[in-house]
Design brief:
Elements (H helix, E strand, L loop, with lengths): L1 H10 L1 E7 L3 H10 L4 E8 L2 E7 H14 L2 E8 L1 H6 L5 H17 L5 E5 L6 H10 L13 H11 L3 E9 L2 E8 L13 E5 L3 E10 L1 E2 L6 E2 L4 E4 L1 E2 L8 E2 L3 E17 L1 E19 L2 E4 L10 E9 L10 E17 L2 H17 L7 E12 L2 E13 L1 E5 L2
Helix pairs in contact: 2-3
């Protein structure tokens, strides 16, 4: 079907309106003369809309005379009509060709690089690694090997646990995830600090080696030094670097929020579908099928296919198939008390997966609120745990 649509576009067709009392006779006579009409829409008892090729439209004259209907052109579509506009406008045509060429040329480069997901690691550090791999704004898309870039970031930045590179148009999006601060094995002869793995309130600190920088009741943030391995003394000419040892117990909070609509709709597909297609060339979109979506309630599914990959060069040409599936929407109201129990259990289960097994649960609080038809369940669990992790002193 897509091939036929593309063929009709390049061959050219017209959208016509047929008015009269013998519409069925008109269609039957057109079919008998091998004149193909498609996308026929009945507007009312005496009016139809349809599409027909340019050659078929010319042959409709005999049919119109025989059945006594009136045919008028609503719209001309297709490549021949598009080109005909430039027949007597050579400079405009030349400008259009140059513009399209420039669009294709400039869209083959990356003009913006966005870095998302980093908190502790600065953008400059990631940018410097990218520059060492010759990845920067203005690079050709063909030279930007996504797998090589993500691997290079993971190899050069140890605090990254994940890196993904995606190219959207002329923009490169680099999504990263940082490694969680966790206990690492550091040799006993290696100087190190003990830092906080998360935000917390200090309960108790036991120092075996090094010097405590915090005390009970202090609020600390992630990465803050709790026990330092740099010991300074008036009797020492220079600081002494030691391997810190100790345990830091602190109160931390874990929160999980579950949102569930009280009145919700359940969609069930009826099996009826409506499909449209379009070709996207750069920023220009060419609709290969017109018509309103005949459903009041529907879900949309998109199928995107690149057809501009010619091997040597990749043109920004894609086809998009839009599939609209009719659904019947059923409205149901959930019992609020039962919903509270369900969301509380669900949230607690999700929360317990995040809490370290060796920690001690101090308290648990469940809060409910209703906003705009949403039951919001907030589960707060307070625990006592060792938040200290070792970090080398460079």
């Amino acid at each position: 079907m897509l091939v036929i649509r593309i063929w009709n576009y390049f061959r050219g067709y017209v959208i016509i309106k047929i008015e009269g009392l013998t519409l069925e006779k008109f269609i039957n006579l057109a079919i008998s003369k091998n004149i193909i009409l498609w996308d026929i829409i009945r507007i009312d008892y005496t009016t139809l809309k349809a599409k027909v090729s340019v050659a078929g439209f010319k042959e409709l004259r005999d049919v119109v005379q025989k059945v006594g209907c009136r045919v008028s052109v609503v719209e001309k579509k297709g490549y021949p009509f598009f080109i005909n506009k430039f027949k007597y406008r050579k400079m405009l045509a030349l400008g259009s060709v140059i513009s399209i060429s420039l669009v294709i040329f400039f869209t083959s480069f990356i003009w913006r690089i966005d870095i998302v997901g980093n908190e502790r690691i600065k953008d400059e550090e990631i940018t410097n690694v990218l520059l060492s791999m010759n990845v920067k704004e203005g690079i050709r898309k063909s030279a930007a090997k996504k797998l090589d870039i993500s691997n290079g970031l993971l190899l050069n930045i140890q605090d990254l646990s994940f890196a993904n590179v995606e190219i959207r148009g002329t923009k490169m999006i680099i999504e990263v995830k940082e490694r969680a601060l966790s206990q690492v094995d550091i040799k006993e002869d290696t100087p190190c600090n003990i830092v906080a793995s998360k935000k917390a309130v200090i309960e108790k600190i036991v120092v075996k080696n090094g010097k405590a920088l915090v005390e009970k009741g202090d609020v600390v943030k992630e990465g803050q030094v709790l026990i330092t391995g740099i010991v300074k003394d008036e009797n020492l000419a220079s600081p002494l670097f030691v391997h810190s040892e100790g345990i830091v117990f602190a109160r931390t909070k874990y929160t999980e929020i579950i949102e569930e609509p009280i009145i919700k709709f359940i969609d069930e597909e009826t099996g009826k579908t409506f499909t449209t297609r379009e070709i996207v060339i750069g920023s220009k979109r060419i609709q290969l099928m017109n018509g309103e979506i005949p459903f009041e309630n529907y879900v949309e599914e998109k199928k995107v296919k690149e057809i501009g990959d010619l091997g040597i060069i990749k043109l920004p040409i894609i086809t998009i198939q839009h599939i609209y599936k009719e659904v019947e929407r059923t409205k149901i109201k959930q019992d609020v008390d039962a919903l509270k129990q369900i969301t509380a259990v669900q949230g607690t289960q999700q929360l317990m997966e995040k809490i370290p097994k060796e920690s001690n649960v101090i308290s648990k609080d469940v809060r409910y609120s209703i906003e705009d038809n949403l039951l919001i369940t907030e589960i707060i669990v307070e625990v006592s745990e060792d938040i200290g992790v070792k970090e080398k002193i460079n």
